[in-house]
Amino acid sequence: MEDGQNSDQQSVKSKKSERANKKGPDGRGDLTKYSRPKRRQNAPLPQVRPTARKAHVQRRHIVLAFSFMLIVLLPIAVSAWYLWTRAADQYASYLGFSVRSETGSTSSEVLGGITSLVGMTNSSSSDTDILYKFIQSHDLVARVDARLDLREIWSKAPDDPVFSYTGNTSLEDLLSEWDRKVRVYYDNGMIDLRVLAFDAQDAHAIAQAIYDESTILINQLNDVAREDALRYARIELEDALERLKEARQEVTTFRNRHQMVDPSADVQSQAGVVSSLQQQLAEALVQLGLLQANAQPSDPRIEQSELRIRVIREQIEAERQKFSSETATGEALSDVVGQYESLAVDRDFAESTYTAALAAYDSARAEATRQSRYLAAYVKPTLAQEAEYPERARLMMILSGFLLVIWIIGVLIFYSLRDRR
After folding, report:
1. End-to-end CA distance of the chain
2. What's the distance, CA 191 to chain centroid?
3. What stretch or stretches form a coiled coil here (predicted)?
4. In angstroms, rounded to a whole number, what is the distance separating the alpha carbons of residues 359 and 353?
5. Residue 146, pLDDT score
6. Cis (ω within 30 of 0) for the bond into 297?
């Protein structure tokens, strides 16, 4: 009995397990639809292709290798052969300088006072800009060539056509070679130069010639500035002198016309006479009052005092009439005095202007006697002990990298066009 029950339970469990196995991966549905279809018997197996073909040398590979040799290896080999066998050694001479400007001013003390302060305050930065352009100009190349014969100096390596001068006699070809052999660096008002030549003495001579010609140019600019300062001061002095002459001539003409040396002095002298007479009149009046108070009316001293007072008053009136009298030209004396005072003021102003202009001219001339701008060489032309150029290793690295980049770009373009077919 018990054996029958156990067999029934096992049959139930086996049925449940079969139903569970038929469900899908999500626990629902039938598992049979997720199972692979059964291969039919005697059906052929599918063929599996290999992951990569066996490598074979193609024609394009040969072309790429040949192009690498032609574009990269061959130029590098030729360049290395030329640099180490044909290229001549070059010596470098270095030079560094800047333009210095004196900004201090000079003063002149005239008649106990400072009349002017004159100084040249031109900016040295603009002079450095001019000098930087001058070093790269035809003018400097022509000057240095006239002194040293640059064509001969840069043609001393006939077996080196790349770095040697191979141009004609034109100045344009020489300027092109100048740009290759002379490098100019400009930074913050300072100029640095590097001069190359096949001989150390030649490089030093070219650098020294550049420095000398630059000094001459700065001196010429300095002379122009000094001449301008002197010219302006001279013009002001001449104008002041002409004004002073005119003022003095007008005073002389006035004196001759009115026949008076100094009308103001004449008026002052007459005013002094009137003041003296008024003082005498006051004393006579006091004396007359005392006599009238102490003496008899018939005293002759009283009559004399009255006569004296009357005469003083008449004299005062006569002196006062002179102030409003006419001069030899028929003009009133007061008007004449006013004209003379105006002329005297113009003359005094002209004299002070002339004094200031003369002091300014003397100061400008004193300033012109000293050099206010000059070249200060912080690196004088050097004399090389050994050849630094051409930089063979550096040139080879640059050339190799450049050729390799060109070849890689060409290969990428070739494959991109091939893939688009």
Report:
1. 85
2. 13
3. 227-322
4. 10
5. 92
6. no
Question: What backbone phi and psi angles, to 5 degrees, belong to 105?
Answer: -110, 155
Q: Report the candidate in 131, 141, 123, 139 with the shortest Cα–Cα distance to residue 186.
A: 131
Quote the Cα angle for 309-312-316, to 5°.
140
> Token pair 């002073």 is at which residue?
244
Number of helices and strands in the chain (H, E): 12, 6
From the list 240, 260, 419, 265, the residue with the least C-alpha distance to 346 is 240
CB 59 within 8 A of CB 387: no
Amino acid at 382: T
Half-sphere exposure of 29 (CA within 13 A, CB side): 8
Report residue 154's pLDDT band, with 50, 70 and 90 as the boundaries.
very high
Give the separation between CA 311 and CA 26, rounded to whole angstroms: 158
CA nearest neighbour of 244 among 392, 354, 375, 90: 354
User: Percentage of residues in the chain with pLDDT exceeding 70?
Assistant: 71
Please count the CA atoms within 13 angstroms of the CA of 83 that sit on its side-chain side.
16
Distance CA 14, CA 8 (A): 10
How far, rounded to the nearest angstrom, does the alpha carbon of residue 270 sit from its chain's CA centroid? 69
Can you tell me the distance from the alpha carbon of 327 to that of 336, in angstroms, rounded to the nearest whole number? 8
- Structure-model confidence comparison of residues 197 and 224, the more confident one: 197
**188: region left, alpha or beta (phi > 0 left; psi from -120 to 50 alpha):** left
Helix, strand, or coil (residue 110):
strand
Q: How far is residue 344's CA from residue 346's CA, in Å, rounded to a whole number?
A: 5
Residue pair 120/366 in contact (Cβ under 8 Å)? The answer is no
Distances (CA, A) of 34 to 37, 40, 41, 127, 241: 9, 18, 21, 92, 124
Tell me how far apart the alpha carbons of residues 326 and 335 are, in angstroms, rounded to a whole number.
10
Q: What is the DSSP code (8-state) at residue 313?
A: H
CA dihedral (211, 216, 219, 224) positive or negative: negative
pTM: 0.60
Residue type, 149: D
